[in-house]
Write a structure and sequence with these properties.
- This protein has helices at about 15-20, 30-45, 60-70, 85, 95-110, 135-150, 180-190, 215-240, and strands at about 10-15, 25, 30, 50, 75-80, 115-120, 155, 250-255.
- By secondary structure, the chain is α/β, with parallel strands linked by helices.
């Protein structure tokens, strides 16, 4: 194996890692982990990839349900991205969530895996109604960085770049990245790992939108439509004790070969 080449990549997490917002359950989900695996395969042609993520999972559930399977696959590279579902719960404890993430960092790195994680963006700039939880995001990001430093985990600092909150990177539900957002996350991970051909291009802003963002009463109407279409159903599931991931299993539980994209610069 050449220096910097990886042979077994395993992704752990929730809906973002599963790929919601990039494809659908009929044609299939792609997502940043699939996209990153394709970038990785350009430089590590023999790489195999497993995706253990399941939508709706809390950080503790990711640890309980996915870590053992991940360790059994003996990855030399893993991504661990979880905590957003915890942020949205009434009883959020940043220390508890970070503790679950750190336990996964510790177990995977102790086995010799290179681990990458992400920080989370300013949710108030994506969804104004989410402004009350932004202090939670700041607290969790701080703890993620501390835990990552203790275990030599690489951190893709998506929280530091304004482009990450551009709504054109997000799906209509504003909870999951859209195809362009997943593409940027994959590029961020590649850049964090300093893969050949990667760059900071993922941090650069998009061109100005052709249509200006709604303002005044139009902006208010947009927020109300979003709340009715997406926030309401989400709250309804919470009140019924349901999760979008109920009854679901990992989409790619075993290591399988990856078909590389054509060689070229990372987007």
């Amino acid at each position: 194996m050449r220096s910097g080449e990886y042979l077994r990549y395993v992704a752990l997490g929730d809906s973002q890692t599963e790929g919601l917002g990039d494809g659908d359950d009929i044609v299939g989900l792609r997502g940043f982990a699939d996209r990153f695996a394709e970038l990785l395969a350009v430089h590590s042609p023999g790489v195999e990839y497993a995706n253990l993520a399941v939508r709706g999972r809390l950080a503790g559930q990711v640890r309980a349900e996915q870590l053992g399977s991940a360790l059994a696959l003996r990855p030399d590279l893993a991504t661990v991205v979880a905590g957003v579902n915890d942020l949205l719960r009434p009883r959020f404890d940043a220390d508890e969530v970070a503790g679950h993430l750190e336990a996964m960092f510790a177990a995977l790195t102790a086995q010799g895996a290179r681990v990458v994680t992400l920080t989370f963006p300013d949710v108030a700039r994506i969804t104004p109604l989410a402004r009350p939880i932004n202090s939670r995001v700041v607290a969790l990001n701080h703890r993620i960085r501390e835990a990552a430093r203790r275990h030599s985990v690489a951190v893709g600092e998506t929280s530091l770049h304004d482009v990450v909150t551009d709504l054109r990177l997000w799906s209509p539900d504003r909870l999951h990245a859209g195809p362009l957002g997943h593409e940027r996350i994959a590029a961020a991970i590649a850049h964090t790992l300093q893969l050949p051909g990667s760059s900071d291009a993922w941090t650069r802003p998009l061109p100005p939108p052709e249509t200006p963002a709604p303002a005044g009463w139009r902006a208010t109407a947009t927020e109300l439509r979003w709340a009715a279409s997406f926030l309401g159903p989400w709250l309804g599931r919470r009140l019924r004790g349901r999760s979008s991931g109920d009854g679901r299993t990992a989409k790619r539980p075993q290591l399988l070969p990856v078909h590389p994209l054509p060689a070229g610069p990372t987007p």
